[in-house]
Amino acid sequence: MLSNTATTEAAHSLKSYSLQYKTELLDSILPFWMKHSLDQQNGGFFTCLDQFGHVYDTDKFIWLQGRQVWCFAYMYNNIEKKQEWLDIAKHGADFLIKHGRDEEGNWYFSLTAEGKPLVQPYNIFSDCFATMAFAALDKASPSDEYKKIALTTFDNIIARRQNTKGKYNKNFPGTRSLKNFSLPMILCNLSLELEHIIGKEKVNELVPDIIHEVMEVFYQPKLGLVLENVNVDGSFADCFEGRLMNPGHTIEAMWFIMDLGIRLNDKSLIDKAVTIMLNTLEYGWDKEYGGIFYFLDIQGHPPQQLEWDQKLWWVHVEALVALAKGFQHTGDLRCKEWFEKVHDYTWSHFKDEQYGEWFGYLNRRGEVLLPLKGGKWKGCFHIPRSLYQVWKTLETL
Prior knowledge:
The protein is mostly helical. The chain contains 14 helices and 14 strands.
């Protein structure tokens, strides 16, 4: 793979970043959440944390609860068997077991601090991250209860694939039925997270369909880009939703696809994922102010989302993972060049040098828009996962 001098030098150069990512993860990010987010009275985690780590809202959002359980279980499984990490994961899991689901086993969207339901289980991503949480925790501390929760929730996700919101779907049936990219994208990763529970054969059975959805149905060869929504038959829908492109989603999905490509020993799949990722970065990069746009309209029309030009934390850190893996698997020097470009922007704009952790939301010019460290959407997930992935990927070069 690293056959020529230029590629070898690039590998050495990229490898030098590895320690920076490891140190940030272990000395800043994880300690911030360990110190500030645990609700010792009710269980679970506070995720609405201001710049200093103070709690400014006590509502609990199920997918962020699940993500934080997953995070600490994953670090326990993959870095070091630290009892404190496992205890934190179990602390969150106990709260989820006690309060997280309705009578049919669907996971609520949000709860009060005490665990009373606030928002109905309309959002399948609550289920996705609950599955990830209990699968990772079962690997850390094997338990029939954890296995059962992961398995029954996963079965529920698969059963709801065609209508993820179920009775909470507000669209009128039959007029404009669209498929969304988010679930196939997450299933790329979720299926691997569950492999020790559902078995290799089940993963092998699921993977071809997931890859087809991501790389054939939502990917538009003429554009070289991925759309967020398409008609049920896979055709283009000329409307706000159909023209929508989310560069961060595409880029994140491409490193999931690379992981599947490694599993399948499919070099052409990896190469295609790297090409799509680079096309997306080229298209989604703000040429005037730097950073990656949040949303774009594929035909250049004004997007429906008013926040379209914001620069978000998760988009940039997921791009760093994808670029690191892209270089690792292909040696493509464009991945190195883009990695350094995105790295410089990300570390100089999102990291809070004074109080630790990272800001989540910047305006188009790269100025901090909201000084929060966590909220309804940002929690203990994308940054620690990405820091870990980049650290471990670059370390191998």
